[in-house]
Amino acid sequence: MKAREAPNGRRWIDPLLGLLVFMCCLVVYSLTLTPSLSFKSPDGNELATVAHQLGLAHSTGYPLYTWLGRLFCFVPIGDAAHRVNFMSAVLGAGAVGLLYSILLLLTGRRLPSTFAALFFAFSLTFWSQTGIAEVYAPNAFMVALTLLLLLLWARREEADEARGGPRWVTSSLALFLAFSLVFGLSLGTHMSNLGFIPAFVVFILLVNWRVALQPFKLLGGGALFLLGCAQFLWLPYKAATLVDAPMARNAPNTLRGFYNYTLGAFPQMKFAFPLWALPDRVVVYLHLLWQNFGVLGVLLGLFGMWEMLLRRTRHFYLLVTMYAVHLVFFTQYRVFDLDVFFISAHLLFAIFVGYGLFRLLEYLYSALGSLRVPRLAVCVVAALVLVLLVVYQGQGNWRVNDYSGDVAINDFYHGVFELLPEGSTVLGRGGVFGYDMFYFRYVYGIRPDVLMPMAETADRVRVGSLADASAVYSTVPVAQEGQSMGPWSPPPQLLQSDSWAIPVLVGQSAQSSFAPSRGGLVLYEISDIAPRLVVSDAQPAHEMTMRLDGLELVGFDLDQHQVERGGRVHLTLYWRVVERAAALVVTAIDGEHLERHGLGFGNLKRYVEEFQPERDAVVVEDYWVVVPSTTDLGQVALQVGVMPPLAVEGSEVRLADLGMLEVVDGGYFSLPLYRRTVKWG
Amino acid sequence: MTSSRGILRKVLIGAGAVLLISMTALAAFSLGVYVGHEGLLVGNVENFGSRPAPDQPPPQAPLRDGQDLPPGRPTLTGKVGGITDEGLFVRAPQGLRLVEVNQETVVQDHQGRPLEITTLRQGVHIAVFGQFSADGRRLMADTIVLVPSPQP
Q: Are residues B28 and B75 in the same domain?
């Protein structure tokens, strides 16, 4: 059964509707866009920085992504990271628009095409990737474009076949060559697209097996595919810029290194599960499918698969082979952010959803038509139901995917670069995970006087040890003797293992599923001298006695009453331990938690062992806390509380008021700030 | 020509039907295995789906194994079944046990790297080093180690 053609007089509606779908998605994605850096993705900060610098991203290099990201860096909105985030929004919306076009090509019906495209657009996982610097939304765009070009080529071939011979040879050839080039380019947004080759070959042969006998077309297609792949020459060209030690070990400047960096990357993650784990892995995927499409969507998708098998067999083989290859590969892939790797599979499943809906509506029209129910009435009712479904889904996922208030990293580093003394050294995570800090150095050249050893490329490291450095700071705790902190932590030889990590500045707890394993945003001063952590003669400026869970707040110092948005408040808290139970200290503004930390910031146990203070002595916490740049202007209450460390998210915490603060507009979150900051160097 | 196409189409539809039936059967079998092990709880899948693979180092990271872990055998091993203000409920081979944590409880991964206590979530496998209360039902944890999922 062929897709229905729209009446000639109303064909203009189709591209207009596609444009509306694109614009609708772009508006929503822009509203939920992350304003700058975030921990939503482990790689996002690196990808944003590399795109701006035209550098080399982690394996598999992502050259096309890097170049496109650089182009978006010229868009005059926000900072560089915001612009690369915006690329995800634009190309994500583009992918949805292309999905609409693919479905229109397959069904000839606007209603199921629009519904399935929007249903995918506002699904949990795909939407989550349109607000951050990541490869998945741009890759969905490239996959959808590749698929659309192939389907357009097939339609041309089918039309030629129906006429009994080729009429538009050049058109068919052009579409085939365009498909080949775009497919080759798509490897620069995700190399897993290579897995689609069997599906493409099967489909091309099923549509017109004579292509195998057309050397000009084959050679032309192959050449353009290779031209697309030639983007990977970027890897050896930029290999010297790598700062990530594990990546630098496989630097793509030799043939072996090139293979390890691309096709051979992450061998420990591929096919990482034994056969006995297959049911578990399948259930994980089914769960993700259910999260994104719901029961109704899954059933429609399955129905669509069967209908497509019976009515569009060649297209079924194309789509189901693409889908199956991704399922087999990624259900066996071992990563902690597995959900995003299925986005291409979800895109393909959305096509089945749209086709299933198309067929269901056809059956419905047919059945109700025999009962003399007007087709228009059925169409209107169906459209209303489908719109409600999309709105319901979008409403549910908005809260999860709205990153527009995620300013934790920028606020924190704004404070860090203000606080660091002249000529100091700051350590942090290295490699891919260190770009929350490197970004400010690479993109804006902030504080060139501050030594940032982890941001140096392997051949430019200027320090072997920091034992004699005057002022050393770190955004990660110090590794104790014999303790391994992982390959992305500062090398143990840089610091003495008996140093104290004394908290100076505490940032907002990052709102991210990745953040807990990364740890909080804390700037420590590294010192040989122990902090004044437990005292017997506490003299707080404001004395009080308030029992908060297992701790008693005996007083606090707060020496300011005004703070800029995105600025910081200096706070000293005096605690007496009443119950020997675990507790997290919470600071908050008007009930909104700013940060949480363990009492003593991890130093208490060692301090007690070394200095054995009296049992009723007072624990002193002295630090700056960041006030988010999203805080409302005006008077706010600064609060402190205590919560069990394992308390469920959102559980009630009793908070004590420390005083009122007037929040004023600082307006730091703009390019002029960064320029101002550069002057410090 | 037409009949050969018809035969090819039938073969393709037959093969496709076998593929779809196989996929559906595998999905049904997998769901059956899951429900048999875990019951009708979606929460455990969420943890399984999104948790860090604890026995897997990050990309191409040659990590040393276990050298910073506490010596000796853990006092209790099992899966976190629930989290309350009192502590963790751990599903252990011995039954459900309450694991209490305090200021001094250390949480780390199986490489010995320190972790935030908030990384302990329902469904993760842990090994607890500590002391049991007199009735044997409560365990005061000194160290909690996130461990890989057990092999059968």
A: no
